[in-house]
Amino acid sequence: MWWLNAEQGDKIGEVQWCQKKCGNVSEDGKRELTIKEFKKWLMKFDVDNDGRISKSELRQIIKASGGWFSRWKASNGIKAADRDGNGFVDGYEIENLIHFAQKEMGVRIIP
């Protein structure tokens, strides 16, 4: 897929476009984040500022990262990460989302 580079008026590849917009992106198009950056990025979607991620917030994260089937994936993500069964991904459970994020959200966690 190609995007129009408005600054230069030419076409650039999807990876190059995402690198301009998203920061560090690998050649396979995955956004590379440290665990700290990943947590900070997730909290941008915590619309009610309660320090945890709800299913609807996770759905918005999946949509923002270009994912399809966001309702289904959000349900699976909550099930995978929510260890105490309260229906939310609390601060201490966010690391449980890493595997899910790498598989479903186009993210790669780096050291």
Write the layout of secondary structure elements.
Blueprint: E1 2-5, E2 10-13, H1 14-22, E3 31-33, H2 35-43, H3 55-64, H4 70-81, H5 97-104, E4 107-109
Parallel strand pairs: 3-4
Antiparallel strand pairs: 1-2
Helix pairs in contact: 3-4, 4-5
Description:
- Keywords: Calcium, Repeat.
- Residues 33-68, 78-104 form the EF-hand domain.
- This is EF-hand domain-containing protein.
- Helices cover 43% and strands 13% of the residues.
- The protein is an alpha+beta fold and 111 residues long.
- The protein folds into 2 domains: 1-32, no CATH class; 34-109, EF-hand (Recoverin, domain 1, Orthogonal Bundle).
- The strands form 2 sheets. The protein has a two-stranded antiparallel ribbon. Strands 3-4 form a two-stranded parallel sheet.
- It is globular and about 35 Å long.
Alpha-beta content class: alpha+beta
Whole-Å distance between the termini? 29 Å
Range of helix content: 40-55%
Report the CATH topology name of the largest domain: Recoverin, domain 1
**Fourth-level CATH superfamily of the largest domain:** EF-hand
Name given to the CATH architecture of the largest domain: Orthogonal Bundle
Basic shape: globular
Strand line-up in the sheet with most strands: 1-2
Q: Please work out how many helical segments DSSP would assign.
A: 5
Mean pLDDT: 80
Keywords: Calcium, Repeat
InterPro entries: Centrin_CML-like, EF-hand-dom_pair, EF_Hand_1_Ca_BS, EF_hand_dom
Protein name: EF-hand domain-containing protein
Pfam family, one: EF-hand_5
